[in-house]
Amino acid sequence: METITRIPFELDVKTLMARVHVVPGSDDEAAFTALVDQARAIANPRAVYRECFIEAKGVDAVTIEGITFTSRTLRKNLEKPERVFAYVATCGHELDEIPLPAGDMLMEFWRDTIKTVLLFAATQHLNRQIDRRYRLAKTASMSPGSGDADTWPIQEQAALFALLGGRDEVRKQSGVTLTESFLMIPNKTVSGLRFPVDKDFRSCQVCHRVECPSRSAPFDKTLWEMMQHE
Ligand code: SF4
Predict the structure, then answer these.
(1) What is the CATH number of domain 2-198?
(2) Distance from residue 54's CA to the centre of ligand 1 (Å)
(3) pTM for the complete prediction?
(4) Residue 213 Cα, ligand 1 centroid: separation in angstroms?
């Protein structure tokens, strides 16, 4: 498993203030700037990944290095590829260690926003490294638990972490804990399988959720129907 640390990131106070609607010159500006300064000093976004080879493909399952994943959408996306890249990328646990006033929801929101920026830096860096190192032209990714509940059930996080060497190893290398309910801590962490594609694919295209603030592509009925058939 490869571990990436010292991922570069930018925490620009003015940009972040606009994002969280802190008005320049307001009482909140000093507190927010102090939080960003603290974050900048301790943040350590990280990522781990591993090149893995596909061993078998069934109707709605795929076996990768002895571990079987069940998802028809994943299986469809892996029609051509012979290998995938299992990954975890995270904002890092450091910001959770900044003591905030108990019950201060606004400061929690600020911290979460900064963590989102760090996670974005980690995923971008990870994707660039995989694409460059393995000379991949176009890639897409799927994550257990994203999209419709049955697209790729969140319980398969356990298998994904096993593919990466197990929960303890992932925790040791990245600081990310997978809980018994398959959530990842820190909260701003993503995991999944990345793979080469001919055409762009995003889980949002086959997700029925309406009014999702994180939607990155419109629902594509034709694609969704295609994913349902054998
Ligand atoms: S629409 Fe929202 S819930 Fe559905 S896959 Fe996209 S980000 Fe996830």
Answers:
(1) 3.40.109.40
(2) 26
(3) 0.94
(4) 8
